[in-house]
Amino acid sequence: xxxxxxxAFSVLALPHxxxxxxxxxxxxxxxHQTQASTGQTTGKxxxxxxxxxxxxxxxxxxxxxxxDQRLQEENGQDGIIIAKVDTTKETEVGKRFKIxxxxxxxxxxDRKMYNYKGSRNIDExxxxxxxxxxxxxxxxxxPAAPSVFEMKMKEFRLKFQDYTQDTEHLKYLLxxxxxxxxxxxxxxxxxxxxxxxxxxxxxxxxxxxxxLGSTGSKTKKKKKD
Length: 225
Known about the structure:
Strand content: 5-15%
Number of strands: 5
Helix content: 40-55%
Distance between the termini: 84 Å
Mean pLDDT: 78
Largest sheet: 5 strands, mixed
Low-confidence stretches: 1-19
Shape: elongated
Number of helices: 8
Structural class: alpha/beta
């Protein structure tokens, strides 16, 4: 019994360890998690748009982690979430917010978007996300999230991207498909609908052929009997 109490006491005596971590956002998860343009009901999101090769981004990385830790310890009830986006991989998010320099820091709070232009030290970043942003005029016009169709096309492209690495002709076809999706969304939607329609009709024809074949075999059996 004493050993049980000793273990319990030692666990309680351990210093507080936060399990929080900076959240990685992607083209697929960005809007779902942040709800940047659809209400922002999941919290206030301070997002770093970065590139792995960027020297300033590398310098900011430990500060970004420290900021997350401090907010969790001192302002856990405020719902402030620290996140990051690798725009070299998540290109759609980069295009959506017109990211042209690294790192770019954007704060999504109170249904607005605030661009951070201050110093990248922990104290000024902390001050900005807790109170300082309120002194700025936030942009209420946040770029709209990609449509469901565009996200499905993105998933489709990712699935087939690996197959095109060693086949030049397939790579060209996939690039052409990207061009259609980006500049002629209506045409791309028509192609998808057309493909689904052709597939449906083909399925009906196959089912009819199989059905006729089974009916014919049954008729022959009856005649033999």
